[in-house]
């Protein structure tokens, strides 16, 4: 994943509010009726757990994209990583990693970040060939990400491009959670308002606060695993197994 500067973090990214908590089960039922693409219809028909489910009972999948840039309207996905997880387990045997041919130009700036070169994508499959498997892997699970506008925005744009339908889904955003927890730990409201000495909520920096090991950054599968571990650490530190899903999803 790309790491964003402070000026690129929106208020929505930095906080979770009550308005983010949609009735996703009802919304999925409505989307299942209108969706035309079979794999997407099946994704919605599988539904999601209720908002009142304890987080210990929630099936999850950690997801990460590497992209050609940060704008889902102009850039595109170049790799996808995912791994199934729960609050207590990360199922490494379920891990999946795809490098795909981007629909937009692969810029030198993004190559420096994620290391996926023009030669690496020259013979890579088109994203359209992995859409069905990707949707199947997300089916029935809550998606865990670090900075949800990337995964939500890019997957929505990619599906609109390939199957002429967008996608909506609930997420647990570890960046938004870390922003919430960091604000609670802030010693000074004035320091928060002045944006001084605030803890970084980037993935690597957030993991460091929980004494998690350093992983090489910007590989989609490694970042998905890192995000999964971060969520487990956040929940173990700040929440309980009885915490309800609707307090941390959006």
Automatic annotation (TrEMBL):
CDD domains cross-referenced by the UniProt entry: DEDDh
Pfam families named among the record's database cross-references: RNase_T
InterPro entries per the UniProt record, alphabetical: Ribonucl_H, RNaseH-like_sf, RNaseH_sf
Molecular function via GO: 3'-5' exonuclease activity; nucleic acid binding
Keywords: Exonuclease, Hydrolase, Nuclease
NCBIfam families in the record: PRK09146.1
This protein's name: Exonuclease domain-containing protein
């Amino acid at each position: 994943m790309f790491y964003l500067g402070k000026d690129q973090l929106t208020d929505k990214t930095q906080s979770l509010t009550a308005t983010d908590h949609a009735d996703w089960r009802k919304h999925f039922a409505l989307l299942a009726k209108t969706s035309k693409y079979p794999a997407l219809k099946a994704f919605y028909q599988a539904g999601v757990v209720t908002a009142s489910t304890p987080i210990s009972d929630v099936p999850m999948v950690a997801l990460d994209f590497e992209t050609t840039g940060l704008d889902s309207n102009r850039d595109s996905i170049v790799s996808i990583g995912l791994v199934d997880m729960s609050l207590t387990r990360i199922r490494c045997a379920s891990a999946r990693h795809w490098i795909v041919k981007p629909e937009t130009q692969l810029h030198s700036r993004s190559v420096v970040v994620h290391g996926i070169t023009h030669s690496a994508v020259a013979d890579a499959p088109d994203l359209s060939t992995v859409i069905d498997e990707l949707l199947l892997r997300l089916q029935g699970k809550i998606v865990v990400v670090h900075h949800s506008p990337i995964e939500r925005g890019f997957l929505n744009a990619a599906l609109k491009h390939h199957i002429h339908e967008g996608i909506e889904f609930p997420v647990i955003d570890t960046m938004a959670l870390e922003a919430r927890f960091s604000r609670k730990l802030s010693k000074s409201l004035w320091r928060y308002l002045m944006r001084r000495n605030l803890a970084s909520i980037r993935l690597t920096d957030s993991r460091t606060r929980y004494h998690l090991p350093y992983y090489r950054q910007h590989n989609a599968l490694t970042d998905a695993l890192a995000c999964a571990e971060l969520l487990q650490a956040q929940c173990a530190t700040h929440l309980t197994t009885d915490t309800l899903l609707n307090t941390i999803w959006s």
